[in-house]
Amino acid sequence: MKNISLLILSSILFIGCKTKQIQEQQVVSQEIKQEVKTEEPKEVMLIGQHLKSDLQQEPYASWFTPEEASYVANQETLFSLRNLNQDYTITIFMGTWCDDSKQQVPRFYKILDAIDFDLSKVKLITVDRSKTTPEKFENGLNITNVPTFIFYKDGKELHRIVETPVESLEKDMFKIVTGQPYKHTYEN
User: Fold this and answer.
1) Residue 104, CA atoms < 13 Å, CB-side half-sphere
2) Gyration radius (Cα) of the chain, Å
3) CATH number of residue 128's parent domain
4) Which among 10, 64, 131, 149 could disulfide-bond with 55, CB atoms 3.0 to 4.6 Å apart, if both were Cys?
Protein backbone atom coordinates (compact mmCIF):
# COMPACT_ATOMS: atom_id res chain seq x y z
CA MET A 1 0.00 0.00 0.00
CA LYS A 2 2.88 2.36 0.83
CA ASN A 3 4.44 1.75 -2.60
CA ILE A 4 1.13 2.51 -4.33
CA SER A 5 0.80 5.78 -2.40
CA LEU A 6 4.34 6.77 -3.32
CA LEU A 7 3.74 5.89 -6.98
CA ILE A 8 0.57 8.02 -7.07
CA LEU A 9 2.38 10.90 -5.35
CA SER A 10 5.28 10.74 -7.78
CA SER A 11 2.92 10.63 -10.77
CA ILE A 12 1.07 13.72 -9.56
CA LEU A 13 4.32 15.63 -9.00
CA PHE A 14 5.54 15.18 -12.56
CA ILE A 15 2.33 15.61 -14.58
CA GLY A 16 2.59 18.26 -17.25
CA CYS A 17 6.19 19.38 -17.33
CA LYS A 18 6.96 16.77 -19.95
CA THR A 19 5.59 13.37 -20.81
CA LYS A 20 8.42 10.87 -20.61
CA GLN A 21 8.79 7.38 -21.96
CA ILE A 22 7.56 4.61 -19.65
CA GLN A 23 11.08 3.50 -18.73
CA GLU A 24 12.07 7.04 -17.81
CA GLN A 25 8.93 7.40 -15.68
CA GLN A 26 9.88 4.28 -13.73
CA VAL A 27 13.35 5.67 -13.05
CA VAL A 28 11.89 9.04 -12.01
CA SER A 29 9.39 7.29 -9.74
CA GLN A 30 12.21 5.45 -7.99
CA GLU A 31 14.10 8.72 -7.51
CA ILE A 32 11.01 10.39 -6.04
CA LYS A 33 10.54 7.52 -3.62
CA GLN A 34 14.09 8.10 -2.40
CA GLU A 35 13.42 11.83 -2.01
CA VAL A 36 10.25 11.15 -0.05
CA LYS A 37 12.06 8.70 2.23
CA THR A 38 14.85 11.18 2.96
CA GLU A 39 12.32 13.99 3.53
CA GLU A 40 14.45 16.65 1.83
CA PRO A 41 13.16 20.23 2.15
CA LYS A 42 10.45 21.20 -0.30
CA GLU A 43 11.40 23.30 -3.31
CA VAL A 44 10.62 27.00 -3.10
CA MET A 45 8.36 28.03 -6.01
CA LEU A 46 7.71 31.44 -7.47
CA ILE A 47 4.03 31.87 -8.28
CA GLY A 48 2.47 34.91 -9.93
CA GLN A 49 3.79 37.72 -12.11
CA HIS A 50 7.53 38.31 -11.86
CA LEU A 51 10.52 39.81 -13.63
CA LYS A 52 13.67 38.30 -15.09
CA SER A 53 15.56 39.79 -12.14
CA ASP A 54 13.56 37.55 -9.77
CA LEU A 55 14.98 34.50 -11.55
CA GLN A 56 18.47 35.93 -11.17
CA GLN A 57 18.17 35.73 -7.36
CA GLU A 58 18.79 32.62 -5.27
CA PRO A 59 17.61 29.92 -5.19
CA TYR A 60 16.67 30.34 -8.88
CA ALA A 61 19.99 31.86 -9.98
CA SER A 62 21.65 28.47 -9.38
CA TRP A 63 19.99 27.16 -12.55
CA PHE A 64 19.06 30.39 -14.39
CA THR A 65 22.49 32.01 -14.59
CA PRO A 66 24.52 29.01 -15.85
CA GLU A 67 21.86 28.03 -18.40
CA GLU A 68 21.62 31.57 -19.76
CA ALA A 69 25.41 31.90 -19.93
CA SER A 70 26.00 28.59 -21.68
CA TYR A 71 23.36 28.86 -24.43
CA VAL A 72 24.80 29.50 -27.88
CA ALA A 73 22.15 30.81 -30.25
CA ASN A 74 22.32 30.77 -34.04
CA GLN A 75 23.96 34.10 -34.89
CA GLU A 76 22.39 34.39 -38.34
CA THR A 77 18.91 33.98 -36.89
CA LEU A 78 19.69 36.48 -34.11
CA PHE A 79 20.84 38.99 -36.73
CA SER A 80 17.57 38.52 -38.64
CA LEU A 81 15.50 38.89 -35.45
CA ARG A 82 17.41 42.02 -34.46
CA ASN A 83 16.52 43.67 -37.76
CA LEU A 84 12.79 42.96 -37.54
CA ASN A 85 10.13 45.34 -36.32
CA GLN A 86 9.73 44.32 -32.68
CA ASP A 87 6.14 45.47 -32.48
CA TYR A 88 4.94 42.49 -30.45
CA THR A 89 4.66 41.46 -26.83
CA ILE A 90 5.43 38.14 -25.19
CA THR A 91 3.91 36.34 -22.23
CA ILE A 92 5.90 33.52 -20.69
CA PHE A 93 4.29 30.88 -18.48
CA MET A 94 6.81 28.78 -16.58
CA GLY A 95 7.28 26.72 -13.45
CA THR A 96 10.36 27.20 -11.28
CA TRP A 97 9.88 23.50 -10.45
CA CYS A 98 9.95 22.37 -14.12
CA ASP A 99 13.15 21.16 -15.78
CA ASP A 100 12.03 22.33 -19.23
CA SER A 101 11.33 25.81 -17.84
CA LYS A 102 14.71 25.83 -16.10
CA GLN A 103 16.34 25.13 -19.45
CA GLN A 104 14.26 27.10 -21.97
CA VAL A 105 13.42 30.30 -20.07
CA PRO A 106 17.04 31.37 -19.43
CA ARG A 107 17.84 30.62 -23.07
CA PHE A 108 14.85 32.68 -24.20
CA TYR A 109 15.97 35.65 -22.13
CA LYS A 110 19.46 35.35 -23.61
CA ILE A 111 17.93 35.60 -27.09
CA LEU A 112 15.86 38.63 -26.07
CA ASP A 113 18.97 40.31 -24.69
CA ALA A 114 20.94 39.52 -27.86
CA ILE A 115 18.32 41.17 -30.09
CA ASP A 116 17.89 44.16 -27.74
CA PHE A 117 14.23 43.32 -27.12
CA ASP A 118 12.48 45.67 -24.72
CA LEU A 119 11.90 43.51 -21.61
CA SER A 120 9.06 45.79 -20.53
CA LYS A 121 7.10 44.06 -23.32
CA VAL A 122 7.61 40.65 -21.67
CA LYS A 123 5.22 39.39 -19.01
CA LEU A 124 6.63 36.51 -16.92
CA ILE A 125 4.04 34.38 -15.15
CA THR A 126 5.24 31.62 -12.83
CA VAL A 127 2.75 28.86 -12.08
CA ASP A 128 2.35 26.08 -9.56
CA ARG A 129 2.40 22.39 -10.54
CA SER A 130 -1.24 22.54 -11.65
CA LYS A 131 -0.25 25.47 -13.92
CA THR A 132 -2.34 28.01 -12.06
CA THR A 133 -1.80 31.29 -10.25
CA PRO A 134 -3.86 32.90 -7.47
CA GLU A 135 -4.55 35.82 -9.84
CA LYS A 136 -5.78 33.41 -12.58
CA PHE A 137 -3.40 34.84 -15.22
CA GLU A 138 -3.74 31.51 -17.04
CA ASN A 139 -7.54 31.68 -17.46
CA GLY A 140 -8.65 31.27 -21.05
CA LEU A 141 -5.13 30.72 -22.35
CA ASN A 142 -5.06 26.90 -22.46
CA ILE A 143 -1.76 26.51 -20.61
CA THR A 144 -1.21 22.74 -20.70
CA ASN A 145 2.58 22.53 -20.57
CA VAL A 146 5.34 24.80 -19.37
CA PRO A 147 7.16 26.73 -20.44
CA THR A 148 4.77 28.36 -22.88
CA PHE A 149 5.92 31.47 -24.76
CA ILE A 150 2.96 33.36 -26.27
CA PHE A 151 3.63 36.02 -28.90
CA TYR A 152 1.08 38.83 -29.39
CA LYS A 153 0.73 41.59 -31.93
CA ASP A 154 -1.88 44.30 -31.43
CA GLY A 155 -3.34 42.26 -28.56
CA LYS A 156 -3.92 39.15 -30.70
CA GLU A 157 -1.99 35.92 -30.29
CA LEU A 158 0.35 35.24 -33.22
CA HIS A 159 1.45 31.82 -31.99
CA ARG A 160 3.22 30.10 -29.14
CA ILE A 161 6.18 27.87 -28.37
CA VAL A 162 5.07 25.13 -25.99
CA GLU A 163 7.47 23.29 -23.67
CA THR A 164 10.33 22.79 -26.14
CA PRO A 165 11.11 24.42 -29.47
CA VAL A 166 10.60 22.55 -32.74
CA GLU A 167 13.93 23.69 -34.24
CA SER A 168 15.47 26.10 -31.73
CA LEU A 169 14.01 28.94 -29.69
CA GLU A 170 15.41 31.61 -31.99
CA LYS A 171 14.36 29.84 -35.21
CA ASP A 172 10.86 29.11 -33.90
CA MET A 173 10.60 32.72 -32.72
CA PHE A 174 11.67 33.99 -36.16
CA LYS A 175 8.99 31.89 -37.88
CA ILE A 176 6.32 33.17 -35.49
CA VAL A 177 7.12 36.89 -35.74
CA THR A 178 7.55 36.77 -39.53
CA GLY A 179 4.26 34.92 -40.06
CA GLN A 180 5.81 31.77 -41.50
CA PRO A 181 3.98 28.45 -41.10
CA TYR A 182 4.65 27.07 -37.63
CA LYS A 183 3.24 24.35 -35.41
CA HIS A 184 4.36 24.02 -31.80
CA THR A 185 5.32 20.67 -30.28
CA TYR A 186 1.78 19.69 -29.28
CA GLU A 187 -0.13 21.14 -32.22
CA ASN A 188 -1.71 18.71 -34.69
Assistant:
1) 28
2) 18
3) 3.40.30.10
4) 64
